[in-house]
Amino acid sequence: MVENDLNELMLERRKKLDELNEKGVEAYSNDFEREDLIADILSDFEKLESEERVIKTAGRIMALRNHGKSTFADIMDMSGKVQIYGQKNKLGEEDYDLLTSLNIGDHIGVEGTVFKTRRGEISIRVSGFKLLSKSLRPLPEKWHGLKDVELRYRQRYVDLVVNPDVKEKFILRSKILHNIRRYLEDKGFLEVQTPLMHPIAGGASARPFVTHHNALDIDLYMRIAPELYLKRLLVGGFEKVFELGKNMRNEGLSTKHNPEFTSLELYQSYADYEDMLDITENLIKTVAQNVLGHLEVEYGGLEINLANWDRMTMVDSIKKYTDVDFAEVNTLEEAKILADDKDVHYDENTSIGEIINEFFEEFVEEKLIQPTFITQYPVEVSPLAKRNPDNPNFTDRFELFIAGNEIANAFSELNDPIDQKDRFEDQVSQREAGDDEAHMMDEDFIRALEYGMPPAGGLGIGIDRLIMLLTNSPSIREVILFPHLRPENK
Question: What is the pTM of this model?
């Protein structure tokens, strides 16, 4: 629909609005009391028909067909769509003319009795109706074939009206979140809320958004992760806590990244990363079964079986896919030679652990299609995880990958305040060397650990990515109602 056509149609609707005002017809009424959802009308048709009960429902007009002295229209609410049937001799000339003057997109309230047409379609024979909201913009006719998908995201309100699949996806999203909460609460976890504005950015390696608090005259960082506050609660005596909420990271946009995203983080005292591994697998299986009714999902043409989960150490996974065995590497120079041979990037301040992680991200991640836990991450890339007692160069940590995407991250939590401070200081050095995603020093968190945090396991799940998987959505923007986009005028 070109802009000139759109302007003409909008002028036409404005003219109709003026005519309604002149006739004293309220175009944005709020005094109609809906008593029946469309889905209930359809499911209870036989009873409603036999009782000849007058129903009262409301919805948006999605189709309109005038046939002289009778008019058919389809109206839709969130629960479904139904046909209405209006007759001139039943409504009277004035009301019937109003009915025929309505536009697709208008909201109306109708009352009448139900019947079936000759073709067997359940319909409402209208005995009265009321215009509830006049639509001044026409709904698009070719929305499904839009090449500019950003327009769908930008005008999500239109996307939801004309594309039932999109609406269903977000209904599924709500059910997934509900089932996550129910699973954790059944396991004895307490849902909590921690600050969205932090005096120190921490809990993850990421670039934060910065804001300013006028009354305190201090800069604050929008939350990149709730981790350090949730661990403070373990110190305070809460033993099983979780938070399902938003994080903000000032990073790039991609099919997997949105600056504002939803995560689940949970922490359990007297547990470790093995316990978190069990929780992760069981939670995802339970949610998928409850919401989808099965454990076999399709994602981007791939068949994913959530019933079977694999497990490898990071070093073993690199060996499997590259034949490079870092278990045999003892010096940084040896690691650099292997990196040079495979064109793996590193800088002058790199470590063996960082090179191992680069190998993994370069050669392994995208090959992990079926659910796979990658365990034993290098200390250098795991500043908040506890060292493995048998090999202190690695940590008791795992990440879960499905269809090549990282879905979850968990570890046995570091609760040694001296080790934690040393690692923060190492992160500060990296930050001073130019890494603006490295951790800041958090003296208050160190103080909390000094009071004693019980041994614990912690888990984070990227909720948007999990929903992408369960709804077969290729982009994170498909599962966020209002994703961040470039300004419209650009």
Answer: 0.92
